[in-house]
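Hey L., structure's done. Input below.
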Amino acid sequence: MSKKPRFGQLVIGPPGSGKTTYCHEIALLIQHVFNRKVVIVNLDPANECLPYSPGIDVQELVSVEDVMEVEELGPNGAMVFAIEQLERDKDWLFSKISSFSDEHFFIFDCPGQIELYSHHQSFQHICEALIKEFDFRLATVQLIDSYYCSDPSTFISVVLASLSTMLRLGLPHTNVLSKVDLIQKMGKLDFDLSFYTEVASLEYLVDRLEGNPFGKKLAKLSKAICEVIDDFSLVSFVPISIMERETLYHLVKKIDKTIGYSLSDLEERKVRQTANLTPSEAEFDYSLLCNLQEKYITNSTNEDLDTL
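Output:
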């Protein structure tokens, strides 16, 4: 008898990108608007301040603080050690997951160290084991703080890191620009929000490096990196703000589509009614992007790429 598949989001991103807050808010939305049973799984052995009550907490198995004390390792080394221990003791995680029915939707709150996803293998092996054991349909949700858009070199770097993670984990992947409501805190943007969400024509960002002595020195390298990113043409971003619930609704819909979680027409209508959205509002389109641009990014230069 074949297993009924389980569904979930694997939430990753650098420290400070808002992963834990996202997990909390998206779980509430999925539970109360999409009418699903939700389990949040804390896979971060260093995350001690949780705004939610995890259904499964890796710190019951191993914590970074304990590893640092016993193994005399620094924070990063202790994190790698802890994830390697989770890989060795994955049966512990399997038993915890098995205590929930296959009707539950799982949200995995993951550590922020990028090396766990870019070149270390333990986390990749854990994902592969989950898929094999439970027929999990997982989507990677990579959060990137939108303030990175304010600096061309930094944005190029995070786009490259996103591409590396996408290729490394090999799962359905959605990149997210978080905290769009705070995007102007670091200064105005060189382009409209759509430039950063579509990740097109990155060579225009290289031109912005000319005014920076360090950036000018690395202009050729930056241009080569941009060409690699453009050649793959895989990276784009979905903008969200916890303050704008509509953006979270559209993100859930997009992720559901990537993992094959479908609703009947009746269920879809009920979800729209609960979210208080019209059918047209329930479809993410350019107007929502424009609303975010107008509301939060009024000080951008609003340059048109066609005129550059």
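The beta strands are 6-12, 37-42, 56-57, 104-109, 136-145, 173-178, 237-239. The two ends are 60 Å apart (CA to CA).

-- N.
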